Amino acid sequence: MIQPVILSGGSGTRLWPLSREQMPKQFLRLTSSQSLLQQTLSRLVGLTDAAPMLMGHHSHRFLMAEQLREMDQAATLVLEPEGRNTAPAIACAALLARQSGDDPLLLVLPADHVIGDVQAFQHSVSLAEPLAEAGYLVTFGVVPTQPETGYGYIACGAPLKGGHHLAAFIEKPDAKRAVELVDSGDYLWNSGMFLLRASSYLDQLKRLQPTMLEACEEAVSSAHHDLDFLRLGEAAFRRCPADSIDYAVMEHCHHAAVVPLAAAWSDIGSFDALWTTVTPDAAGNATKGDTWLTDTQDSLVFAEHRLVATLGVQNLIVVETSDSVLVTRRDQAQAVKHLVASLSQAGRSEPCSAPQVQRPWGSFQAMDSGERYQVKHITVKPGGRLSLQRHHHRAEHWIVVRGTAQVTLDESSFLVTENQSTYIPIGALHRLENTGKIPLELIEVQSGSYLGEDDIERLDDVYARDSDE
């Protein structure tokens, strides 16, 4: 049996401002109507009947759940209290997979990759299966299509049926070294995807990283259910050393193998990688949204909320969102992460907070703000129910523009329909619900001395959230 394990812990900092800490790239619809996570789940169809195990950060739990709901996809949602890299995440998945007494093959897939040829991907998995059955820890090496400095490489060793012994991992090379690696024909891109038997991986971890395995065992044994989620034991998991499976295990394992993968793969790790998934126009430009390009060549221009016009430029990346604009040369695409790091160090909120904030009941987006006021567009999905709460520093005005709101205000309960409004005074106990069959949309105007999301005293919440979630 193949047990899919989807790793949803990536941050995607090189895709800022599209990707944020609160809305990382795996949840974005960058290349199709499905998010990268949803595409990852979709390519499992026909490969295995086992429900996937989805490993992710606890702050993204409602994003994961909502995207599964959109697909009507069953899955086990395992929450990490903080990121500890891939080796511990896979260890916890292996331990959980063995709790029933089974010992499945784990197909470990990052949630933020694109694969254009699903049939070729599934064929490579079938080639890897006998090797994993024989006890090899198998990774998939992407057949290079060009010299690439944004990917690590894998050196192929002696041939095996369906693949090769894994000889070595090569860090991301400079341009000259990348050409040498590709021209040799003996190196593949490191995809970060694996097929391995749960017990084989745990045996290697016990030999190579006993402290890590001990912490993961304790984190799994102390895990507890929270609504539809399984939370790993927080104290034990935080004690776990952070390391990738490559460094912690694969580099030191004598039974590591690599199977070639030629399936139009990309990790969408930068805007240059995103570029490869779109078809440019006659001038070499790739665009999305409301754009107007004049005398512009070989540029990527994305507009999310307003017209973006360019004139007399070339080899640029221009990305506009409601709160940020990025302009950089294409040859600086890999350095965007350094820009994001400097913004974070300066205390800016833009690397973390997303313009549209997802909640289990729906979403909200800031429209305008100033001294002592803030305006939001709120969408509550059918059946969505906000917590019963009060605010100590702000009042709110709600104007319904679509649907019907069920409002609780202190001791009363009433409906507010389209083109009607209501007022929530400071300190009043209140709740907003959508009991209808269409999304509820409203404009919320907040006013007061403090407008932070943590000014919420929750008295009842069906989603069991913290104060600022």
From TrEMBL:
GO molecular function: mannose-1-phosphate guanylyltransferase (GTP) activity; mannose-6-phosphate isomerase activity
Record's keyword terms, sorted: GTP-binding, Isomerase, Nucleotide-binding, Nucleotidyltransferase, Transferase
InterPro entries according to UniProt: GMPP_N, Man1P_GuaTrfase/Man6P_Isoase, Man6P_isomerase-2_C, ManC/GMP-like_b-helix, Mannose-6P_isomerase_type2, NTP_transferase_dom, Nucleotide-diphossugar_trans, RmlC-like_jellyroll
Gene3D superfamilies: Jelly Rolls, Spore Coat Polysaccharide Biosynthesis Protein SpsA, Chain A
Ranges for domain Nucleotidyl transferase: 4-277
EC number: 2.7.7.13
Domain named Mannose-6-phosphate isomerase type II C-terminal: residues: 353-461
Listed pathway(s): Nucleotide-sugar biosynthesis; GDP-alpha-D-mannose biosynthesis; GDP-alpha-D-mannose from alpha-D-mannose 1-phosphate (GTP route): step 1/1
CDD domains linked to this entry: cupin_PMI_typeII_C, GDP-M1P_Guanylyltransferase
Keyword flag Zinc: no
Family listed: Belongs to the mannose-6-phosphate isomerase type 2 family.
NCBIfam families: GMP_PMI
Protein name: mannose-1-phosphate guanylyltransferase
Organism, scientific name: Halomonas alkaliantarctica
